[in-house]
């Protein structure tokens, strides 16, 4: 099912009609829909930004774009909150709502404060609908770097990139591959599938519906949905005995404490964090503590030079760029059963990306990150 089509039900009839006129290629590549009251309706697709025309299709001139009305925005908010703002009070306080399918909708409006902290959002007039997609094979050219052959497990891994550049898509597919057993893992040296636990605080990784993941996370994956990361990691450790624990967007002190607990319990951790490159995340105190302590044996850096999700490089705990014994090319889902590879490395958007085999070991800092 096309992800965009599943979102159309949230919009008012005028918005739905105009979005439905977009070319099929654009619909397939939409990453964000920006709805701003009385301002041009904007979309992000591929590596482009465009406005949705008042009549049909796309336009580059904002004066020709459709401008959502107050009624359009009110309808969208009512659909997002299922006609009950009170029920979604916590989500409104955090500034986003995750809907069925793992799509995350950011909100902006007037903040209501209580003792200097945000208590609520009201007069919401800006919406950022981020389209979640399942892209099988996204982790196939990253997983070989992460396998710890000495323990037949996975290295502790931190995945770094700015927002909207493929981190969540990558860890979703890594969960599928790691838990998949000999059907996928044997290619990378795992030999068997590992028990994977996912703490999905924002309901984006698994897109659970009534507790059941709607994305394919593999046969040995358990999901704790809608739970704060730090508390969720401790719950997973106590209750589900995962061999690999996956969390998205760490950065708080309590996250670091929970990661240390997991590591001391013999559990391997894969986490993501916002940053331009591995040197950039060291500027954040909590992440600096983890990196200086060489908690993560692998640091994966993504960018969008050749499309969202382009692999910039993989680094070891000391910050040195990693190379495999042999160049590894992107492995498509169809080629997994044949144990062969393609002629050129592609990122998971299908764009030409940097070839891993040509990387040189450059030391701790890469000025071009």
Span between termini: 36 Å
Q: Which runs of at least 5 residues are low in confidence (pLDDT < 50)?
A: 326-369
Number of strands: 16
Helical coverage, percent range: 10-25%
| Mean pLDDT across every amino acid position | 84
> What order do the helices and strands follow?
HHHEEEEHHEEEHEEEHHEEHEHEHEE
Which strand order do you get reading across the main beta sheet?
4-3-2-1-7-6-5
Gist?
By secondary structure, this protein is of the alpha/beta class. It has helices at 3-7, 13-19, 24-29, 70-80, 89-94, 143-146, 167-178, 185-188, 229-239, 253-264, 285-292, and strands spanning 30-36, 42-45, 48-52, 58-59, 96-99, 103-114, 117-130, 147-148, 153-154, 157-161, 196-200, 221-225, 244-247, 268-274, 298-303, 310-316.
Structural description of this entry:
This protein has helices spanning 3-7, 13-19, 24-29, 70-80, 89-94, 143-146, 167-178, 185-188, 229-239, 253-264, 285-292, and strands at residues 30-36, 42-45, 48-52, 58-59, 96-99, 103-114, 117-130, 147-148, 153-154, 157-161, 196-200, 221-225, 244-247, 268-274, 298-303, 310-316. The protein is an alpha/beta fold and 369 residues long. The strands form 3 sheets. A 7-stranded antiparallel β-sheet has the order 4-3-2-1-7-6-5. Strand 13, helix 10 (253-264) and strand 14 (268-274) form a beta-alpha-beta unit. It is globular and about 60 Å long. Residues 326-369 have low confidence and may be disordered.
């Amino acid at each position: 099912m096309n992800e965009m089509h599943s979102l159309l039900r949230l919009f008012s009839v005028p918005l739905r009609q105009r979005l439905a006129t977009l070319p099929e290629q654009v619909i397939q590549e939409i990453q964000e829909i920006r709805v701003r009251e009385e301002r041009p309706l904007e979309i992000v697709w591929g590596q482009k930004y465009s406005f949705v025309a008042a009549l049909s299709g796309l336009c580059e001139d904002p004066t020709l774009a459709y401008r959502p009305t107050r009624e359009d925005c009110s309808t969208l908010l009512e659909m997002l909150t299922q006609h009950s703002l009170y029920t979604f009070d916590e989500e409104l306080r955090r500034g986003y709502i995750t809907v069925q399918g793992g799509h995350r909708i950011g909100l902006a409006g007037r903040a209501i404060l209580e003792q200097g902290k945000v208590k609520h959002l009201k007069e919401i007039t800006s919406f950022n609908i981020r389209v979640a997609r399942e892209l099988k094979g996204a982790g196939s050219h990253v997983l070989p770097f992460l396998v710890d052959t000495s323990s037949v497990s996975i290295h502790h891994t931190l995945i770094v990139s700015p927002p909207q550049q493929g981190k969540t898509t990558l860890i979703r597919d890594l969960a599928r591959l790691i838990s998949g057993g000999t059907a996928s893992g044997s290619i990378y040296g795992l030999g068997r599938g590992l028990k994977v636990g996912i703490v999905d605080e924002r309901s984006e990784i698994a897109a659970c519906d009534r507790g059941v993941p709607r994305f394919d996370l593999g046969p040995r994956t358990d999901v704790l949905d809608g739970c704060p990361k730090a508390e969720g990691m401790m719950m997973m450790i106590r209750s589900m005995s995962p061999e690999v624990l996956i969390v998205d967007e760490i950065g708080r002190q309590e996250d670091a404490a929970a990661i240390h607990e997991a590591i001391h319990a013999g559990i391997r951790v894969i986490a993501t964090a916002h940053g331009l490159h591995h040197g950039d995340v060291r500027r954040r105190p909590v992440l600096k503590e983890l990196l200086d302590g060489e908690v993560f044996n692998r640091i994966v850096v993504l960018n969008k030079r050749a499309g969202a999700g382009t692999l910039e490089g993989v680094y070891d705990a000391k910050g040195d760029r990693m190379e495999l014994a042999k160049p590894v090319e992107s492995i498509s889902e169809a080629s997994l059963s044949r144990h062969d590879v393609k002629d050129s490395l592609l990122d998971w958007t299908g764009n030409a990306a940097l070839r891993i085999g040509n990387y040189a070991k450059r030391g701790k800092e890469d000025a071009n990150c």
